[in-house]
Amino acid sequence: MLYHSPSEYDILPIGFSFAEYGRRKPIRNKNTEDIKLEEFEKRYDGLTVEKEMQKYWDDNKIYDYAPDKSRPFYSIDTPPPTVSGSLHIGHIFSYTQAEMIARYRRMRGYNVFYPFGFDDNGLPSERLVERETGIKACDISRSEFCDKCIEITQRYEAEFMLLWKSMGFSCDWNLQYSTCSANTQKISQKSFLELSEAGHAYIKESPVLWCTECQTSIAQAEMDSKDIDSHFHYIPFSVEGKVLEIATTRPELLYGVVSVFVNPDDDRYAGLVGKMVKVPLYDFEVPLLTDEKVAIDKGTGAVMCATFGDTTDVEWTQQHNLTYKKVVLPDGTIAADVPFVSGLRIKAARKEIVRLLEEKGLLIKSEQLTHIVSVHERCGTEVEIIYSQQWYIDVLSRRDELLAASDKIKWYPAQMKNRYINWVENLKWDWCISRQRYFGIPIPVWYCKNCAKPAFAAYEQLPVNPLEMEYSGICECGCKEFVPEKAVLDTWATSSVTPQLNLDTAARFGIEDGFLPMSMRTQAHEIIRTWAFYTIVKSLYHTGEIPWFDAMICGFVLAKPGEKISKSKSNAKLSPQELIAEYSADAIRYWAANARLGTDMYFDIQDMQDSSKRLITKLWNSSKFVLSHLRDFDAAYQPAHILPVDRWIMERTNEAILDAAKWLDVYEVGLARKIVDDLFWKDLCDNYIEIVKERLYQPDIHGEEERKSAQYAIYYCLLCILKMYAIYIPHETEYIYLKGFKDFVGLPSIHLTEWPKPSDFDVEIIKFGETLKDAVAEVRKHKSENNLSMKTEIEEAVIACAPEFKQWFIETEKDFAACTHAKDIKYVSR
User: Fold this and answer.
1) Which of 86, 567, 674, 807 has the fewest CB neighbours in a 10 Å radius?
2) CB neighbours of residue 570 within 10 Å
3) Is-contact 687 648, C-beta < 8 A?
4) Kindly report the CA angle at 399 between 393 and 400, in degrees rounded to 5?
5) What's the predicted TM-score (pTM) here?
6) pLDDT band at 602 (very low <50, low <70, confident <90, very high)
7) Is the pLDDT of residue 10 over 80?
8) Tens digits of per-residue pLDDT, 563-576?
9) Read out DSSP for 25-86?
């Protein structure tokens, strides 16, 4: 069995021993034979180094996955990016945060299984191909269009992979999968057959959500809401010669009216319920019925029910067994038998009906309004409801089970669980999984030509395309002729089996038992209602278990308030490739770790450039300084006495290690980065280095053993900082490690070293260090306020400290005096 640690992962018992590292024989790997300390360049050239490090990782197979039962197993279900256009900074933001967790877990001793895939089938990819070629799928043969889809998506996938590699992603590309590959088709079709056999997938002819632009059915999760400007048209229906005023935004559906509804408690219509109402312009009659959903205080309190204006019309039609009247066709035109507007598109028909009503004196008034409509998320077209035969997966009857599943998953951040719960509680439709498109996974079904009963492919035939293969069986009715299913599966019907795809890949390594549930799923919050929900649905049906223990939910990058950066909006100023070429991958990665998990943030190039460049430059210069003082350092030697200020920086490092680990264990890469930043900037650079600098340079004044104490501490501190920064800026930390630490540590990559594991930290010595920092800050403040150089000598420095710290300060006097240029030091109690 594999061991998955389900969330509050304990810090693994990984020790840090200078003596152990010092005794190891240095390991020489290709590409590093000639790396020496003195080769440190004056300036760090990130663009050149990043290419060198990526080649080094590939050549030395640093991230190749290999089974290892001695280490706990950690698996990541990564979202396969949709091949629908070029990637943008928003993708970099969320994918990089998850990649940092992969690096962290690897350094914590886990055997990380980190596959990557591409979602390269379905409507999004079709629309990309239509844009690129200027050819509509319906204008050429299906096979020709699918060939173009394969050609173009493969080109984009190559670009995607190159981008992820350029970002320093630590995945093993041998684990890559594609959602249109033959193996994926087999797994997806197998899922469909299993659900059909169990009665969880079914076919029916009924009202369905429909996009007239894409000319396909869609699922509830594929709808967005949009405010549009429209009109309320007040039209005079009549009952027994009396005017019954009804307001509607859809006058083009007048021919499809099948009833008029009022609230049963509305006294205005008490005597009219059950009577027949004449529909204006068309002059046919429909019954006046009641339903509590009708708002008494909205409009006139009377509403028309047409097939179909909205989901309420669907509910009323089904509840009251009303007749379906076809008005809107799948291509968005009006049916041929509809008088006045046949053949017109919906909005043109609406305009014509309003004109006719006005011409015939049947339009009481029109009022402008802004209201919310449902649109297809892929193209922004207003969603219609038409009658159609489709395949569905039952989710409505499993609502309680789906809600219970959310309690078994640990959501990060916790509030994201509410989004899932709200979605499940408000489901109105079963999951429609069939799509009337071209480039997708075929539904493995044929239909009897005589009775239309579906016939399913055999498991051993998978993958199968019914359009290219005849069914050889005999129907129960005796018919031997079958018609192939032309529809394809919804792309989410395949993306929802990524845990099963990853299990199939893991099986190649002999890993099957215990692989599911996976350790973690990472994704954006916008697709909780789709990818997270559908994956949970499939997992519960196929395994009876949740698909993963943890859900890491990332936020958006915003172009402006309320508008996320997206491929469809083309609102990213620079592509990720341009940003990398201009600023480096490490700079982008460091910026991507600047927010709390799940929160949206603006992309400010100047902010990224300032903060990232400053850190990358400072880390390089600080490392050069430290390593210049380690040329004679013996990692196997531990000083007999470590001075208090050296103990402080080591214990402060231990504190930061433990604090950062706590945040990373709950996927808060941004809060963990702040911990490391504070240690590096405020403690190591601003204070410790300045305090011990003279001791490192002048052992003849301070003593050789005292210098070794500083070497011991600064080696430990910088190496730990490099390890902690390695998940954020992997290229620079690797480069520094190879130049200055590899021969000490004995491992070919910093990314194969272990995250340091102090058991605790000394609170008292850290308090001493804070007091020391305060004392140094007071001297600096005095000199600054008096326009004095920091090198100006001062006659006396008075340190206010607790009595128990006085001896430590006495041992630190030489360092303090060298740092502050104080001639005399006195102490007062505080």
Assistant:
1) 807
2) 10
3) no
4) 140
5) 0.88
6) confident
7) no
8) 555 545 554 567 88
9) PPP--TT-TT--GGG--SS--HHHHHHHHHHHHHHTTTT-----TTS-EEEEEPPPPB-SS-
